[in-house]
Design a protein that fits this description.
single chain, 672 residues, TIM Barrel, Jelly Rolls, alpha+beta, 6-stranded mixed beta sheet, 3 domains, 6-stranded antiparallel beta sheet, 14 helices
Length: 672
Amino acid sequence: MGLLARTSAASPWAGVYKTNRCQSAYVGENLCATFLPSAWPNLGCVLDAPQNWTNLAFTLQIANPGSTPVAFNVRIDDSPLADGTHHCETFSGMALPGPAQPFVCSLLGAPMSYGMRTLPPSPLGQALVGYNSVDATHIVRWQIFLDSPPSPTQLIVTGVRLQPDAGRLEGVVDRFGQFTGSTWSGKMASVSALQASAANDAQQGTRSNVDAYGGWLGGPSLPATGRFRTAEVAGKWWFVSPQGHLFFSLGCDCVDYSNPTIVTGRESMFADRPADTGSSAPFYDTDSDIVMGPYAGLTAKTYDFFGANRMEKYGANWQAQAAQVAINRLDAWGFNTLGNWSRYDIKSLRQLPYVSTISLGGLSRTVNTGAGTVPDVFAPGFAALVSQQLEEQASGAVKDPWCVGWFVDNELPWTGPAGSGEENGRFGLAYGALAADAGSPAKAALITELAQRYETIDSLNRQWGTTFPSWESMEAPILKLSGPPEARRPDLVNFCEAFAGRYFSVISAQLRNLDPGALYLGCRFAGTPPPEVAQEAAQNCDVLSYNIYQPEVDPTVWASAAALGKPLIVGEFDFGATDRGLFAPGLGPTASQSARAKAYQTYVASVLRNPAFIGCQWFQYLDEPTLGRAYDGENYNIGLVSVVDVPYPELTSAAAATNLGAYALRYGPTGP
């Protein structure tokens, strides 16, 4: 039976089946699809006539016959003019290896229109994360696509249909911020149960095999400098503690006891929200630092279930108690570093080493790479701004032996959007400078560099295949270039190298001026940056940092980074599941808490075995709010600890087993 024979007027198959860079065939009732390496390989159906999908959900089942998770997307269009941004909604999901899993694309509206990344679970299947929204009364097309698969990738699709979509947005969370729609081990039913759980808190202990800063006493003793430093010992990179012992950073980011969620406009989602008077009043606040959702750029009322629950549990001195419990737990689980964005009052206890967190802001000039903005490093005030921001955000880290080092910025968009431009957006910085207005310092620097190299505009035009009448004419925004891309490639590489060189060198110089003994830990790259950017980072940073959301750190993938001659550290990684009341697993999806625990062990072991890496830092200590964090709506199961301050025993036990055995695994029984 052919594909078109399967369509009907009441079905999303009522139209013309289309594929693009995707090979597909039916095997029984299963549509076996192989998505080929390309920007957006896809399959789907252009409907014969617009359909009304009001109060309906687009559902499907996807099986993954491979051995690794596959990120996939479903796009639903309400107009033939849909272009991936307008007149369409794109849903994102992850197909885990194994049998078919049911997924749901709800047309109730994009989850972020409700202030959360993922809506509550549907009885029809796992709700996919959606962005934008469509006119459900006028649906014209749907498609399933992958984003630039590196090799042919197979998925098996079945059960594509429309089903009634019941409303699920009333009374979503209880008085503790827990999901009301299911039960699980560790869910709190009463204040008395929450208070009784304090008896299970980890107690302060001492580990006999480490020095005062967590340096390993079982390894060689190196010169003590009074600060953390790095050293290569028999072919493996290490931190060295202030007392001269090997140190491998097993960190946890965002060690905190607070994470508010938005109340404004969502009051009906709270089944039993505490009153905004009395003991609950301090946990209500307003937040204007909102970047996504209906209150982006506005101010909204928030409530902090995390803090309120800890107040109920510990009483009047709850902040100090929660801080000490966090330290005790992390130490018992083998974590030895307070990672990025951890609270100052927890770091100031000086019981675990910590990293300093700096975020540059306040510069009026930026460069838009198409994937976001980066500071314009050629702006006259850039060096002064860096100096000012370092001093203002230092929070006691200067000359502090407990400070492992300084991270400056996080996941800057060094390239254009994935799949855009030449070499997957590699030259986003250069194209962003060209597209800027005449007042752009970065643009002026690029034009000056080109003028010095080519001397005349005619020489540039001959090389680039362009027709600029003068150097001055290049000051206007340049949104499109004629001529072959390979002709201008060397100049774009040179500019991106110069830009990155100034960024890293200025920060390095200002940091060493402020805190001469400090380690500069880099800017926490999101994945792999362009080689010229990585090379400039290696010239100026003591450690190169990468946020790596993969099942493990593959040494072949990271060989080029290791070859730069500087130690590497993972700034973020995590794994999540949806079996304990959270709606989404985050960037490292697993099937269950047990699978989550195994994933942690596999990942950390891969880092420990890699001689170039000197640490990895889990993101994060707390789960995110069930209804989404106020900042951007993330509501992922990525914590070591739940909203009601209950550790995940599978994960924390596995972490302890791996972390406490880390030095034996990395150093080895017979030496490094």
